[in-house]
Amino acid sequence: MTSVIFMGTPEFSVPILKGLVANDYEIKGVVTQPDKKVGRKQTLTKTPVKVAAESLGLPIFQPVKLSRSPEVEELIQMHADLIVTAAYGQFLPTKFLNSVKIAAINVHGSLLPKYRGGAPIQYSLINGDTETGITIMEMVKEMDAGDIYAQEAIKIADNDTTGSIFAKLSIVGRDLLLQTLPQIIADPSKKTPQDASKVVFSPNISKAQEEIKLTMTATQANNLIRGLNPDPGAYILVDGKRLKVWQAAVSSTTTDLPAGSLVANNNCFAISMAKKTVLELKEIQPAGKKRMDVKSFLNGQGGKFKVGDQIAK
């Protein structure tokens, strides 16, 4: 039986871990990020991978920092056949990568060399790409720079968000990994180097990137909203306050009103954007409140916003 150390953290990783178990790979250990406090009540919450590993009765490791931790030394001594990572969230020490007998493999959520880094799915949506995919790759010291074992592309639909793409790619990643592992085990040298001239990076999303700016067209703003849904969410400043936007649409109409003006407010909260485009807000979340549809939001405003008003900054 081929032994595996599995490393992952979010929901994306869970089908991949379960697929390995269901296909009789021996999971020597599951490494995931530490439990963290979540929400207003700061409830200590397990990662989705930890929950899955507990249900499967697998050994769990949660070092705050893997490098130089007692846990990494224990993992090295396992001398597993494979390391399989899927959205783990930390760099892996070279001595750990080199400790396995066959290969250290990553299930990466992009078509490398495009979108190396921690937010490949988010950037594919923010940039308006029409496809994304999964890369099964060798792990090396440099981030996402390893040779490629296999790739599979999927189309990005107009209504896709980062959440929906994560869900789709977790299944694609599981199936492609299980399909590719036998050939890796048989001949780990059979792989293709990445084209360094086509590398694009996708660093983690910054706080500054969360703001919908009036210099954006409606399409650019809508892509940002889709890319930051479900986390952390994009916001626009309306009446000087942050208004998170969870769902929007690009209007087929144009306007001569300055960017940031209210174009319509009759069961449709539409704001003018750059280049005369119009963004229709569908699902929003005022600061300190729950998500709501636009109709519920407008009902609570008492006619405060008038068509033509400069409401966004």
UniProtKB/TrEMBL annotation:
Keywords: Protein biosynthesis, Transferase. The gene is fmt. It catalyses: L-methionyl-tRNA(fMet) + (6R)-10-formyltetrahydrofolate = N-formyl-L-methionyl-tRNA(fMet) + (6S)-5,6,7,8-tetrahydrofolate + H(+). GO terms for molecular function: methionyl-tRNA formyltransferase activity. Its EC number is 2.1.2.9. Residues 204-301 form the Formyl transferase C-terminal domain. It comes from the Bacteria. Attaches a formyl group to the free amino group of methionyl-tRNA(fMet). The formyl group appears to play a dual role in the initiator identity of N-formylmethionyl-tRNA by promoting its recognition by IF2 and preventing the misappropriation of this tRNA by the elongation apparatus. It is an enzyme of class 2 (transferase). This is Methionyl-tRNA formyltransferase. Signal peptide: none annotated. NCBIfam families: fmt. Belongs to the Fmt family. (6S)-5,6,7,8-tetrahydrofolate binds at residues 110-113. Residues 4-180 form the Formyl transferase N-terminal domain.
